[in-house]
Amino acid sequence: MTAARLHHELDGPDGAPVLVLSNSLGTTGEIWDGQLPALRERFRVLRYDHRGHGRSEVPPGPYTLAELGQDLLALLDGLGIGRVSLCGLSLGGMVGMWLAAHAPERVERLVLVSTSARLGPPEMWTERAAVAREKGTAALTETAASRWFTSRFRRHDPETVARILATLAATPGEGYAGCCEAIAAMDLRPDLPRITAPTLVVAALDDPATPPPHADVIVEGIHHARRELVLDASHLVSVEEPERITALLLEHLGG
Question: Per-residue pLDDT averaged across 115-136, rounded?
Answer without folding.
Answer: 97
